[in-house]
Amino acid sequence: MEVDLCFVMDCTGSMGEYIEGAKDAIEKVVEYMAKLEPAIKIRVGFCGYRDHCDNPIRLQVFDFTYSCEEFKNYLSNVPATGGGGDGPEDVLGGLNAAVTKMTWRNTTRVLLHIGDYPPHGHQFDNPEDDYPDGDPYGLTEEQ
């Protein structure tokens, strides 16, 4: 069996006290999956997101690799920074980047999302939201 496993994670400043724990958990999953070879051959990738005001680091995409060490090296350099003044984050942008910017190729595809705030938009009941009408690029959860 061959698997594509993509981690999508909120990398904003609000994740500051949690990001190292989240990265440790991701590494443990990747190490465990790597030990399942040859029964399961895994490619791992990462898509970190922040918020719309955080260009040029709004999205961080690390495409799939078979190398556990290469993945862990990349992940170790992902900081928790940015995020603006409101609570909601660019969740939809992060998920969209994972779907459209990653080179998915195996039939078994797993996406694990880690975050501490919902996407922008009043439908998510966010009292403090710089984008109450939703994603400024027009992304919706249905997409």
Automatic annotation (TrEMBL):
Gene3D superfamilies: von Willebrand factor, type A domain. Keywords: Secreted, Signal. It comes from Rhizophagus irregularis (strain DAOM 181602 / DAOM 197198 / MUCL 43194) (Arbuscular mycorrhizal fungus). Residues 134-143 have a biased composition (Low complexity). This is Hemicentin-1-like von Willebrand factor A domain-containing protein. Residues 119-143 are annotated as: Disordered. It holds the Pfam family VWA_4. Its main location: secreted. Residues 5-102 form the Hemicentin-1-like von Willebrand factor A domain. It is found in: Secreted.
